């Protein structure tokens, strides 16, 4: 299928054919493709839990309110945001960028570019992602609002703003995964209606982890899990050419 066909094929399928199994290795490959999704500052503050064991599937489905999409799914993927990994990932990206610059940048520009990356990932990223009961976020908001008087600057730097940023990046990975699954003619349904506290206990997630969404996977059972035609508001109501 070409991209148009893949996007039209993908639907939120809420019931799956239990007799049709799906290959966990192909799902794993789709998750590998999901890591190619764009993400804020390349921080990649996410992890993916690929659920295949029947007993665990039943527990996850229960935490997802036993919706038909999870109770009939062959496998389930849970997308998790890990803001608590910001220091580790900032160091990882910085080490990668140093080598990247040494390989591909002109020698006369390498020192300056490495210095910029060290400032960005060594200082700025740990500063904007750090949390302390909302206090650090308030300090950052005050600081950037003062700076914005004199020049343009990003204003969304509170602790809640950075939470939104991490969830947006994780959601982009989840969307990329669903498109890759559609290309395999596998079906998915992104879910947010769930008991996140129970699900975190099931997956043994630490306090700093957050559930982004749960995506049950399978093969559609005819049209049973598809609620008619897609509902989309008229394109002219949301499109603005300026």
SSE inventory with pairings:
Layout (H helix, E strand, L loop, with lengths): L2 H7 L14 H11 L11 E6 L2 H10 L4 H4 L3 E8 L3 H19 L2 H23 L5 H13 L11 H25 L3 E2 L7 H8 L5 E10 L24
Antiparallel strand pairs: 1-2, 2-4, 3-4
Please tag this protein with its features.
alpha+beta, 242 residues, four-stranded antiparallel beta sheet, globular
Describe this structure in words.
It is a single chain. The protein has 242 residues and is α+β, with helices and mostly antiparallel strands. Helix content is 50%, strand content 11%. It contains nine helices and four strands; from the N terminus they run ααβααβααααβαβ. The protein has helices at 3-9, 24-34, 54-63, 68-71, 86-104, 107-129, 135-147, 159-183, 196-203; strands spanning 46-51, 75-82, 187-188, 209-218. The chain has a four-stranded antiparallel sheet. The chain starts with a helix and ends in a 24-residue tail after the last strand. 29% of the residues are buried. The mean pLDDT is 97.
């Amino acid at each position: 299928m070409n991209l148009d066909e893949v996007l039209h094929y993908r639907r939120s399928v809420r019931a799956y054919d239990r007799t049709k199994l799906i290959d966990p290795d192909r799902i794993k490959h789709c998750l590998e493709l999901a890591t190619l999704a764009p993400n804020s500052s390349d921080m990649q503050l996410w992890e993916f839990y690929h659920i295949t064991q029947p007993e665990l599937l039943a527990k996850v489905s229960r935490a997802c309110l036993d919706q038909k999409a999870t109770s009939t799914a062959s496998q389930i993927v849970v997308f998790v945001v890990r803001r608590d990994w910001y220091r580790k990932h900032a160091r990882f990206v910085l080490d990668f960028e140093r080598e990247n610059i040494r390989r591909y940048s002109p020698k006369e520009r390498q020192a300056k570019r490495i210095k910029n990356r060290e400032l960005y990932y060594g200082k700025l990223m740990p500063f904007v992602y750090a949390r302390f009961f909302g206090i650090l976020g308030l300090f950052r908001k005050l600081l950037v609002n003062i700076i914005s008087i004199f020049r343009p600057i990003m204003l969304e730097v509170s602790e809640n703003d950075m939470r939104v940023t991490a969830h947006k990046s994780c959601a982009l990975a989840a969307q990329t995964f669903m498109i890759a699954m559609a290309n395999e003619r596998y079906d998915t349904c992104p879910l947010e209606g769930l008991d996140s506290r129970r699900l975190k206990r099931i997956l043994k997630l630490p306090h700093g982890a957050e559930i982004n969404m749960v995506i049950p996977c399978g093969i559609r059972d005819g049209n049973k899990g598809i609620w008619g035609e897609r509902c989309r508001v008229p394109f002219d109501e949301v499109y603005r050419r300026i």
